[in-house]
Amino acid sequence: MFKIRHVCATGTLLGTLTIAGCASFPTKEFNKDASPALHSIAVAPIGLPDAPNIMIINAVGNSFGLVGALVEATRASNASKEAVSELSAGGFEYKTYFPAQIDSALKTAGYQVTMLPGARTGGDAAKFLTTPPAAAGADAVLDLYVNYLGYAAAGAKSPYRPAVHLEARLIDAKTQRVLFADQIYYNNFMPAAAKRAITVEPDPKAVFADRAAMRAAPAEVTSYLRGAVDAVAAELGKQLK
Amino acid sequence: MSSAPNSLRASVWPAVWLAGLVPWVSAHAATDHPPDAAPCATARAELKAHDLAEIFLKQQGKVELKRAVGCLKLENGMELPAMLLSLPPLDNPYSIRVAAPTRGSSYLQPRIEMLDAQYHPLRSYGAERLKRRGMEMSLEVFMNAANAEERFVLLYADPEHLGDTDQKTTSQSQALFVGTGFVITGNDRTASLRSATDGELTVQLLGEQWEKALRAARNRGR
Description:
The complex is a heterodimer.
Chain A: H1 2-22, E1 40-43, E2 53-56, H2 65-89, H3 94-108, E3 112-115, E4 140-153, E5 160-172, E6 178-186, E7 198-200, H4 211-215, H5 218-240
Chain B: H1 6-32, E1 49-51, H2 52-59, E2 62-65, E3 71-73, E4 79-86, E5 94-101, E6 106-108, E7 110-116, E8 121-125, E9 131-133, E10 136-143, E11 150-157, E12 165-177, E13 182-196, E14 199-206, H3 208-221
Parallel strand pairs in B: 1-4, 6-13
Antiparallel strand pairs in B: 2-14, 3-4, 4-11, 5-10, 5-14, 7-8, 7-11, 9-10, 12-13
């Protein structure tokens, strides 16, 4: 049962990436001159993964049917749990750090910002909200979710690099019109699947030869992931400036 | 072990060598003495304007920036391939999306200038404003009511970013045959690209009216 749940989780992730490749994201750049009255933004609770992602993009196990997929799912799950410990040892709590960086980036871009209370759980954590929350006094609501946060390796023998993939949508609070919709991917490891995502290249120094190297350096693992979050938040602020 | 007689080898190898040399010679000849080089315009007004709407509707906005299409001598004396596009009337707000692919070994980082009827730049965007999107660098320029004076868009490689190198790392899949079937594995692929004066661009018109116009043009083409 435990293993089947993780197979489903891996399948969902791969499925998401596949779907991302098939259905192009409806990108809409922000036309600031057309929204001169937009001064305040309410940020809906941000969808974040329950645990950091540690993925081997082309895992050999996936070539060996269900048994191979089970083995790979178990590996990914264990790696994710280990990453929780590594980030904890490095003093990094991304569930509070990420929203704080978004808040800061929007303020830097010149907006009054309200971080709406609440949590985004279950299926809502990995997709845009069906109904944006009420945001009294705000001109627009920012709907954000992160569909990848952690490290990724191209293959079993490839190095791990940090990756943070953000999906963002800004909605006019009065008309509910979408003012901005975009993807910001730090380390867009599958550009053919996310063809239109704004891509931020990862820090060339942020490379770990394997998982053992990551386990041995939790401070660096944390520092590079924090840098990835900073870069994504800054890029979002730049898009809305 | 080859069974070809020595006489055959002797005749084949020079031909193979020459075949390999031909592209090199032609490439260098083209670089040193461009046969189709038009005289370089010393002012923006001297450039021949192409109809952006027509290029978008008939060629999906695909253009190639090269000297044969147009050339502009900048104030600093530098001569660069350039393309001047006339803008459609601003009946409703729309936007212009300029994208340069980042495939191959070089890529174009355009400078985008929005000119008025007297060819004076009213807005300009350097290559630092380009966004890296997937496999391309792009920028969207909005045409709002406040930009009604603009008549042309001028594109040329940003001289301040010529020679920039861009390194990107992506993952790629590999299929390995292991006797009973294929195993998919992966590795990193790092590509290094150099910013060049020439290259492909896609210039699209975005907005409700342009979606309709494009659909109508496609229907007419069927």
